[in-house]
Amino acid sequence: MAPIRVHGTPFSTAVGRVLATLYEKELEFELVAVDMKAGEHKKEPFLSINPFGQVPGFEDGDLKLFESRAITKYLAQEYADKGTQFKCGDSKTAAIIGVWMEVEAHQFDPAAAKLTWELAIKPRYGLNTDTAIVEEHEAKLAKVLDVYEIRLAQSKYLGCDCFTLADLHHLPNIQYLLGTQAKKLFDSRPHVSAWVDAITARPAWSKVLALQKQ
Amino acid sequence: MATPVKVYGPAMSTAVSRVLACLLEKNVDFQLVPVNLSKGEQKKPDFRKIQPFSQVPAFEDEGICLFESRAICRYICEKYTDKGNKGLYGTNPVARASIDQWLEAEGQSFNPPSSVLVFQLAFAPRMKIKQDQVVIKQNEEKLSKVLGIYEKRLGETRFLAGDEFSLADLSHLPNTQYLVTTSGRGELFTSRKNVGRWWNEISSRDSWKKVVDMQNKGA
């Protein structure tokens, strides 16, 4: 049994963030299914891994963690010398990568996650899309992407000139949104569009998508 | 002596005060540079060069410009490891992972509903903006659920990430300060035994008292 276990479904954006990191770092792991329809994530023993009752839950030997962005940071630190390095340069660049990781978490994700839910997930469950929410959050996301367009004209990736967690954390929501009307927000901004193409083409990300097809 | 780091923004801003608390815990000298939010100074091109989302804080240290309060806090802890509170961001990888986990919980689960309540209950009245009771009720319910989880956790450990005060606890100080002292909804925290005990402990720290003092003086 692999010491690294991820509890959750590969369709979850938060789980996808962790899976992408594991593949980038070339780490062995076990994906443990969580029956969300049956509410398994809201009961023990899942709650002892994540008391917030959300996926992913994560284990590495005896260590238990939750919150995808804490898990990816842990993996990058603990397995620093394996697979993708997620850095390019000194501690100054590391600080700037840290800034753009927070930008994803607090500027991009609130708008993108709402749009993913309305445009990509709800239709799958036969639920009606709320067009007012879509309009509101497309406008918010557009403003964020305007900042990204300027940034990506100066820097190949968000944090620096190499692919880092600051870029990776965007993948799950971006992938969903590319299959919806929100795709236009990315396509209409040339530097953003090129960045989206580059990060979604990474082999590690394709492996996550392959898990969704199983 | 090294040039003091610069923090741009008013102390009354929750995100700015998060950074100030961290600097004071770490005994790092700083200069607070005012930004007049009511005059829209944060939207001007000069400010947007250092903070492209037109928000406070912005931060500068030896030519590095940073923004996003939690990124700034992590940077301060990593650069000034040996200053002030050395365990603030953990002294080993497992401790740090736990702190990051609860910092993310603060950012993703605690911050959204508590920020809305801080705005609606503490700032809207001052700004003569009408409060939205539906929004207040929804966010009180969300925050209650989160505090229920904290109540259980804080019965198991003294602080969120473990038995030492950390960046994860510190990150909660700004919003909670407003909710406990200004909003009239402080019982969300004080009626819960473990959360109440935790709040008393973290808000009694000298570093936080200094921040509150700065806020009261209109810094």
TrEMBL record, chain A:
Record EC number: 2.5.1.18
Gene Ontology cellular component terms for the protein in this record: cytosol
Family matches, as InterPro entries: Glutathione-S-Trfase_C-like (IPR010987), Glutathione-S-Trfase_C_sf (IPR036282), Glutathione_S-Trfase (IPR040079), Glutathione_S-Trfase_N (IPR004045), GST_C (IPR004046), GST_Phi_C (IPR034347), Thioredoxin-like_sf (IPR036249)
Gene3D superfamilies in UniProt: 1.20.1050.10, Glutaredoxin (3.40.30.10)
Major location category of this protein: cytoplasm
Enzyme class: transferase
Phosphoprotein among keywords: no
GO BP terms in the entry: glutathione metabolic process; toxin catabolic process
Keywords, comma-separated and alphabetical: Cytoplasm, Detoxification, Transferase
Domain GST N-terminal: 2-83
SUPFAM superfamilies recorded: GST C-terminal domain-like (SSF47616), Thioredoxin-like (SSF52833)
Catalysis: reaction(s): RX + glutathione = an S-substituted glutathione + a halide anion + H(+)
Family: Belongs to the GST superfamily. Phi family.
Name assigned to this protein: glutathione transferase
Organism: Carya illinoinensis
Automatic annotation (TrEMBL), chain B:
Superkingdom classification of source: Eukaryota
Cellular localisation: Cytoplasm, Cytosol
GO biological process, alphabetically ordered: glutathione metabolic process; toxin catabolic process
GO cellular component, one term: cytosol
Chief site of localization: cytoplasm
Chain ranges of the GST C-terminal domain: 92-219
InterPro entries per record: Glutathione-S-Trfase_C-like (IPR010987), Glutathione-S-Trfase_C_sf (IPR036282), Glutathione_S-Trfase (IPR040079), Glutathione_S-Trfase_N (IPR004045), GST_C (IPR004046), GST_Phi_C (IPR034347), Thioredoxin-like_sf (IPR036249)
Listed EC numbers: 2.5.1.18
UniProt keyword annotation of Disulfide bond present: no
Annotated PROSITE patterns: GST_CTER, GST_NTER
Chain ranges of the GST N-terminal domain: 3-84
Catalytic activity: RX + glutathione = an S-substituted glutathione + a halide anion + H(+)
Assigned keywords, A-Z: Cytoplasm, Detoxification, Transferase
UniProt GO molecular function: glutathione binding; glutathione transferase activity
Record-stated family: Belongs to the GST superfamily. Phi family.
Protein name (Swiss-Prot/TrEMBL): glutathione transferase
Organism: Carya illinoinensis (Pecan)
